[in-house]
């Protein structure tokens, strides 16, 4: 059996894979099993922030592997402490809990919000409000948080205590808050899986005001939008808000599994000994990878992310076959006349790997993608959107 056949036979059937095996890569160029090259406009769903096999990242990770690859959280290790310090220094948030994925980062955020509500206002203050069309993860609790019914249907009963309300409707949110005992409101600044849709500025700033007024925690899910993706270190920095909890994952480790829940002043002391934990959480190799990623996301680098973003939006907004372009930074959704799935398939044939989100073509290239490579990819994507002879 070749690899594709072996995978089909032995790996659980949860992914509808393309007929493509990736065997190597460097930066934003990957190769398949036949040696054909592709420009990677998906970066492992926004994970390989500096592309594949980035030299600096490899050095940081291999140095750590050769030192201590893992210790239990009973002991101190340097990368974990340094990364927490760096994240707090760059955000003004106070403490960090490390986990291994986005869903787990959100689980931590949810536990913190529930404990804060219980201690501050009473145990009935356990409801968390999230938005319709949101995505917060695949565990039973983060599925409950996810405001899309089709993810829920087959897995009842889910964790209780989540209420969904439409994005960009502050009056509806205020009603939900008045009718429930709410401890937290959790949102994505740009709904990623939901179709790459940014929240309106007035709405998110209104949510923030409401949270301040009612002593409700503002929880921002930055799993996809975080770590430079939108042209700021975190997407909330594009808005005039101050979150109480920021959860992140995907790009933070540059390709190693790492999640983080950043806790602000109100909640920095909510978790005590034994309240939460994770065997792998804060793993030194993952944290060394993350230090290499986060330390490079300075103003100059983030300006280059914005410049590439502007190029993409300008190229695509009036392109033939494109109905609309949405998103922020290097998180781009393209509403196309033809079916997004067909365009993605044709892009593969022409040597570009793209993603979809709902009915859109989604781009999440590596943040350091070479400008010339990016231009080539966008030209091919535009061609496929036109869709004559792809
Ligand atoms: C991907 C994603 C998650 C889930 O992250 P995992 O690492 O797959 O658990 C949660 N929230 C958002 C916004 C995401 O994009």
Describe the structure in your own words.
By secondary structure, the protein is of the alpha/beta class. It folds into two domains: 3-53 and 299-385, Aspartate Aminotransferase, domain 1, CATH 3.90.1150.10; 57-294, Type I PLP-dependent aspartate aminotransferase-like (Major domain) (Aspartate Aminotransferase, domain 2), CATH 3.40.640.10. 36% of the residues lie in helices and 19% in strands. The chain is built from twelve helices and 17 strands. The chain has helices at 3-10, 43-46, 55-65, 78-91, 102-120, 140-145, 170-179, 201-214, 284-294, 299-317, 340-349, 371-386, and strands spanning 22-26, 29-32, 37-40, 95-99, 127-131, 162-165, 182-187, 190-191, 197-198, 217-221, 245-248, 259-263, 322-328, 331-336, 352-353, 355-357, 360-363. A hairpin with a 2-residue loop joins strand 1 and strand 2 (29-32). The longest helix is centred in the first third of the chain and has 19 residues, at 102-120. The two termini are 32 Å apart. The mean pLDDT is 97. Pyridoxal-5'-phosphate binds next to helix 5.
Name a few traits of the molecule.
36% helix; globular; 19% strand; 7-stranded mixed β-sheet; 390 residues; Aspartate Aminotransferase, domain 1; alpha/beta; 17 strands; binds pyridoxal-5'-phosphate; Aspartate Aminotransferase, domain 2
